[in-house]
């Protein structure tokens, strides 16, 4: 396509938006509302997932060894654990460290009772590995593997916690898909109505253009531009608003509710919008393109 044709196509696309100001504004407003809700939900979900990930990082599987096992065998088990893809980190806890932690947690204030075991560690066979995972949903697979290792006496897992976190992650995923699908359909419907109105307004002009030899692509292109521009504008406006709001909200909560900083750590603005901006722009432009394309196929017979 020649540069002059591209210029004409873009110009006609903007003219279509201007001619149907009310429908275009309604479409842009609805698209903005959809993208705003998408961005808002994305920000919330991103922070929830970060919190869940933080909680997952504290869930460990504990591996205990057979009585009388040598340190070389323990080290070999550690190497096999380290090689597993599910494992993010692991830590060896000796029997002395286990007893020291037990005294600190359960015998605080009862030092005399603890002193009676000075020369006899009651947890002498409690050396273990604490294993942390990349993905909590892989815990059953890892536990089955660990139970089959030579020298392993017992494997303890936080099954209830792991199931709760996995179910919560799945729930967030299903809700995200459902909301995005609803917003997607609503936006396509409104853009389709806007483009349909534009086709009706230019019906006679399109007929004349075809009589003088205009190609199908030349006739359809302005309506594609119209849909894409509505989608682009409808994405840029809410993204700008969300950026300002998110920045101010996390600063406000950090200053006014400082006690929450120990419980909640917000994902930084740049990290959230590094993904949100391209996702929202692609979504807006994609919906605009698809909405106009569907409408053209249905209503514009050229």
Describe the structure.
The chain crosses the membrane at residues 21-45, 171-192, 228-253, 273-291. Belongs to the ABC-4 integral membrane protein family. FtsX subfamily. Part of the ABC transporter FtsEX involved in asymmetric cellular division facilitating the initiation of sporulation. The relative contact order is 0.17. Helix 9 (216-256) packs antiparallel against helix 10 (269-299). The protein has ten helices and four strands, in the order H-H-E-H-E-H-H-E-H-E-H-H-H-H. It is an alpha+beta fold. A four-stranded antiparallel beta sheet has the order 2-3-1-4. It has two domains: 3-55 and 164-299, no CATH class; 60-157, Alpha-Beta Plaits (2-Layer Sandwich). 72% of the residues lie in helices and 8% in strands.
